[in-house]
Write a structure and sequence with these properties.
Elements: H1 9-16, E1 24-29, E2 37-43, E3 46-52, H2 62-74, E4 92-94, E5 97-103, H3 115-131, H4 148-152, H5 156-162, H6 166-180, E6 189-192, E7 201-204, E8 207-211, E9 218-221, H7 222-233, E10 235-237, E11 243-245, H8 247-258, H9 265-292, H10 305-314
Antiparallel strand pairs: 1-2, 2-3, 3-5, 4-5, 6-9, 7-8, 10-11
Helix pairs in contact: 3-7, 3-8, 5-6, 6-9, 7-8, 7-9, 9-10
């Protein structure tokens, strides 16, 4: 979450007039994240999140995202539910941007997830995959391997500015993943979150209470979602120039997932490749954000070097056991 587009009092009043949400009591920007403009909204009827979709989100994909959350909510899965206006529509326009209001989800995002939370997250993600097994809509992963050469092109100098010689390592990772042809693997596929970082998961204590921010959701290998989460949840900051993989957290996350949906042998075999692929995806998008975030935006771009260090770890892992499976 972040704020790029400012909303005037007049525009907000006109927007809310299209809903039955009562009187506005509080409205403020949310600084976390890097993708869309998000605001906390409180009215006399409750608490909500207002999202304005920015450049990386294709407006044509928005009905998919809205339908996905409606599907999960209907299944009883804890996630924000789109709020309909008086006309029965959730999607509308605010300050020239597509916009939607969603329900407020209780809980806190863990700053430093513990082992118990990692296990809960794994189980919660698997329950999400199961709940979405009969979701009829599909969406291509717009940030999958086919997009990486385009994302990388022209950013070699940015990588070397972060760390001398880094561009050569990243080019090697891209070539290695391309030669392994991850999309040719026969793995169970379905709807995945694709961005289930700690700031997109809510807990009350160690209990998982829900997931938010589904705007990278897509149809892809289910185990790729697990690989994204291993990158996001199981690494510790090892200091200025490194990160350390926490095997206890990784093992807990995998065990939690398998308590709901056991991995197939092919998924286990592919896990090192999928983890490396997930790390490349987040390195590239962070590198672009690091070098191009507007100076006046209320946003904190995340350091791509964290994922360069993760890639260094993944290059050495040969089997799923290397992640605690």
């Amino acid at each position: 979450m972040a704020v790029y587009t400012q909303v005037s009092d007049e525009a907000l009043a006109a927007f809310l007039a299209e809903y039955d949400l009562g009187t506005p009591l509080s409205f403020k920007g949310i600084a976390e994240g890097v993708e869309n403009s998000n605001y906390y909204l409180e009215t006399s009827t409750g608490r909500y999140i207002l999202t304005l979709f920015e450049k990386r989100v294709n407006a044509a994909d928005l009905p998919y995202f809205i339908g996905l959350k409606q599907h999960l909510a209907a299944k009883g899965y804890p996630c924000p539910e789109p709020i309909m206006g008086r006309d029965g529509q959730a999607l509308r326009t605010l300050e020239g941007r597509p916009a939607v209001i969603i329900s407020f989800l209780e809980g806190l995002s863990p700053r430093k997830p513990n082992v118990a939370q990692c296990r809960e997250l794994g189980a919660g993600m698997a329950r999400m995959h199961v709940a979405l097994a009969d979701f009829a809509m599909t969406r291509e992963n717009s940030l999958g391997p086919a997009s990486w050469p385009r994302l990388w092109k022209g950013h070699e100098a940015d990588a070397d500015a972060l760390q001398a010689g880094l561009a050569e390592f990243i080019a090697g990772d891209l070539a290695a993943i391309a030669s392994a042809k991850p999309h040719s693997l026969i793995l169970p596929r379905g709807t995945i979150h694709a961005d289930l970082f700690p700031d997109n998961a809510f807990f009350l204590g160690d209990r998982f209470t829900g997931a938010i921010d589904f705007y990278f959701a897509c149809t892809d290998a289910l185990s790729y979602d697990l690989a994204v989460c291993l990158n996001a949840w199981a690494f510790e900051d090892g200091g200025r120039d490194s990160v350390d993989y926490n095997f206890s957290k990784g093992a807990a996350l995998i065990a939690g997932y398998e308590s709901v949906r056991p991995l197939e042998p092919a998924e286990r075999a592919a896990l090192p490749l999928l983890c490396r692929a997930a790390a490349i995806r987040f390195f590239l998008t962070r590198l672009i954000d690091w070098s191009s975030t507007p100076a006046g935006a209320l946003v904190r771009p995340k350091n791509p070097l964290e994922y360069a260090h993760r890639l260094a770890f993944h290059r050495k892992v040969q089997t799923a056991e290397g992640y605690g499976a």
